[in-house]
Each structure stands twice: as structure tokens, then as C-alpha cells.
Specification:
Layout (H helix, E strand, L loop, with lengths): L2 H22 L2 H13 L4 H9 L13 H28 L6 H23 L8 H28 L6
Helix pairs in contact: 1-4, 1-6, 4-5, 5-6
């Protein structure tokens, strides 16, 4: 498999991840989901919507307290690291992908690993960080990857080079 094809798989997965973060992690969408979750009982759809909003990002905090600024920094950095780690994983491993199913599993697993790692690393920015807290946040990150990574997997499976 040549380098152009592997870049195509990595590029497609990175763009799909960036689109997920941009579309569903932005402040207006996350606030809408938060309000909606209060109005309706727990359903599978509500669970999926809340999961989509996990890598939240915003341009500014609601208040200027130190805690709010740390949370904003952690959330924004987590969203950026998620995209960067997916790009790194896909660029590194996509050379070994030989089929559409392999591309699907690669894209999906890349999001699981990247979201867990991004969550773990950024958990030390917030107040009173702990190893236990970092592990718990990494678990939430991996849940994001598990329930939304299939979208990236579908994109990478269909990318040029994933099926050849």
C-alpha cells in the first residue's frame, strides 16, 4: 500500500473526527442537549445525544472564576487532543489496513483510544486532580469512542485505500 492511500485513510478519519467534535461539541449544541435532557426521560436517543457532546469546547467560560477557566482549558484541550490523537493513530496504523472491515475497526478503535488518552491527560488540568479521577474520566472518554467511533470507522472503511 503506498503512502498516498494511507494518508487518505488517515485524512478521512481525522476529518470525520474533527467534524464530530465541531458539530456536536460546540456550546450551542451542548447547551441544547443539556436542556433537552432535563425535559425528557432517559432514552437511547438522549443517551446518544449526551455522548456526542462529550468533547465539549467553547470560546469562553460562563464566569471568569479560576475553576471555570481550568474547566474551559481542559475541555478545549481535550477536544483538540482527541482530533490530534486520532490523526496520529490513523497515520501510524493505516499502513496495515488491507480491507474495508479493517478500515472500519481501525477508525472505530482509534477514536476509543484517542478519547480515553485525551481525557486522561487533560484531567490533570482541573482542580484537585487525582489518578482515580483521571482513570474515571478516561473511562468516560472511551465510552465516547465506543458509541460514536463507529461513525469514524464507517468513513475510514469507505476511504480510498481501506478497501485495497
Amino acid at each position: 500500500m503506498d503512502m498516498a492511500k494511507t494518508r487518505t485513510v488517515a485524512g478521512a478519519g481525522t476529518i470525520a473526527t474533527a467534524a464530530l467534535v465541531a458539530l456536536f461539541g460546540n456550546q450551542p449544541f451542548t447547551e441544547w442537549v443539556d436542556r433537552r435532557a432535563l425535559d425528557t426521560p432517559d432514552t437511547a436517543w438522549e443517551f446518544f445525544l449526551r455522548t456526542l457532546t462529550w468533547p465539549r469546547w467553547a470560546f469562553g467560560p460562563a464566569d471568569n472564576s479560576s475553576e471555570a477557566m481550568r474547566r474551559l482549558l481542559a475541555d478545549d484541550l481535550r477536544a483538540i487532543l482527541l482530533i490530534a490523537f486520532v490523526a496520529l493513530i490513523l497515520a501510524w496504523v493505516s499502513k496495515a489496513v488491507t480491507g474495508g472491515a479493517g478500515g472500519f475497526l481501525l477508525g472505530w478503535s482509534a477514536v476509543i483510544f484517542a478519547s480515553a488518552l485525551a481525557a486522561f491527560l487533560t484531567s490533570f488540568i482541573i482542580s484537585n486532580p487525582s489518578l482515580l479521577g483521571a482513570l474515571q474520566v478516561a473511562g468516560a472518554g472511551s465510552a465516547y469512542g465506543l458509541f460514536t467511533g463507529w461513525i469514524v470507522g464507517a468513513v475510514t472503511a469507505g476511504a480510498k485505500g481501506a478497501g485495497s
